[in-house]
Amino acid sequence: MLSNKRLVTICFTVLCCNIALLSVFVKLNIGERCFITIDQHQEALAVIPDDFLSIGIDTSEIENYEKIDFSKPLFRELASALAPARLRLGGTMSERLIFSSENIPSVSCTHCPANASKSTCSAVKKLCRHKFLPFFLMTGDKWAEINEFCKETGLKLLFSFNLLLRDREHEWDSHNAAELLEYSRHKGYDIDWQLGNEPNSFRHVFNISISPKTLAQDFHKLRNLLNHYGYRKSLLVGPDTTRPQPKCPYCLEFMIEFLGNGSNSISVRSWHQYYLNSRTAKLEDFWNPDTFDLLEEQIQTMKSYTAKYNHIPMWLTETSSSYGGGAPGLSNSFAGSPLWLDKLGLSAKYNITTVIRQSFFGGNYSLVDDRLDPSPDWWISVLYKKLVGNKVLKVDCKCSRFQRMYAHCANSKYTNDTTAITLFAINLELAKARFLLNGTAFHGNDLDIDEYIISAPSNNRRSKIVRLNGWQLHYDSSVLEPHHIKYGNHISMPPYSIGFWVIKNTSIKICQ
């Protein structure tokens, strides 16, 4: 038999364990209470287009013609689920791409076949001056395949011309671009255009510098070329500089000087944004509120310094969680999903009218992997397209830095209720979050809510598998059905989760 002393010790130990388990239960299930206020009478903060959430494929992915099969039915289905959207084909290797309308069997720096066009051979000769990066040919057949893919999936192509094709006087050589435009006009392709990729970084990447003033002249030349070849209505998007940051004031200065010389030639002000370095990023960096705050600071900086050109729309033409191809096991898992959804919320709030996700396919930040399995961010993107409407609303969220929430009018294709709004939020804590719905937009305790909660199994933030309302998502079998909430005045989120709520029968006027 146990001695009284030992029995007391065991009972005390059991009691402590129960208290510890109870505290964990309370932390996970009671959670912090937040107050959400949305007023009935308000104007939309911004109105975003249907193709706001868009996608990119890096030019390097088409260097090897066998890497992407644009005709594959599943590949097309996964892309179609994100339509309408833009498909940007650009990146560092766009400065190594040469167009050839003909299929040329072999071409090198010392040999250009007789059946190659003059513009193709001239372009090869120019790029061979820069021997540390290889050039590659995009043939007419491949170009046709890409454009057919866009047509069939409801995507609008945004293509970046090669800026490094330059003559010895450092002026952009437009002959190869003219060949591509003539071919595209003949085929009737509907395309928007860019020139160059991150030109403020050329010294670092290519050991060559192009000044903002020279780049503006190149854009003016391209605008005239587009008008000549029947693309007068096409957008010209640029200059695609990198994000503004304290250690690189030149990034911002380049944009300002370019706009001062070339704003009359462009249709859109564009820049790229990443939060982290893929080589050094850690899991906690992806879930740190300080990381999330970087984007808002960068948007405000770019907006304020280019306010003179606010009549020109602003886009993020290349963006993801971490640069350098994405962080393995993080950028392509649920770990990266809160940053992605928060970026959509912030960008819409500040009237960034297009956000192009790098990338749809290719790299560790892709929405679709090499086996054509969708990532958690693909599911998040599909839900966003399904539920979130064009008008951005003001929402006051009194909560901690670990909960972030945004509000829009609901997507009119989801519900015919013209008073419906969509809330979406992230919970970065290992604790439940509860939101009390306040404000004149809501009718007391009589709310009709469709709820979609995305989470990872066992709160494993590195998981590439996600659950919707507790059920694991599979592309070939899952239906995105909500959990229906009737009669209540609050919503809640489990630990480490993402939520969408469509709230019907509100008093919001602007959504009507």
SSE arrangement:
Blueprint: H1 4-29, E1 32-37, E2 46-47, E3 53-58, H2 73-80, E4 85-90, E5 97-100, H3 118-127, E6 136-139, H4 140-153, E7 155-161, H5 175-187, E8 191-195, H6 202-206, H7 212-228, E9 236-241, H8 249-262, E10 268-277, H9 283-286, H10 289-305, E11 314-323, H11 337-349, E12 352-358, H12 376-387, E13 388-393, E14 396-398, E15 403-410, E16 421-427, E17 433-438, E18 448-455, E19 467-468, E20 471-472, E21 483-486, E22 490-493, E23 497-504
Parallel strand pairs: 1-17, 3-4, 3-12, 4-7, 5-6, 7-8, 8-9, 9-10, 10-11, 11-12
Antiparallel strand pairs: 1-14, 2-13, 13-15, 15-16, 16-23, 17-22, 18-19, 18-21, 18-23, 19-20
Helix pairs in contact: 7-8, 10-11
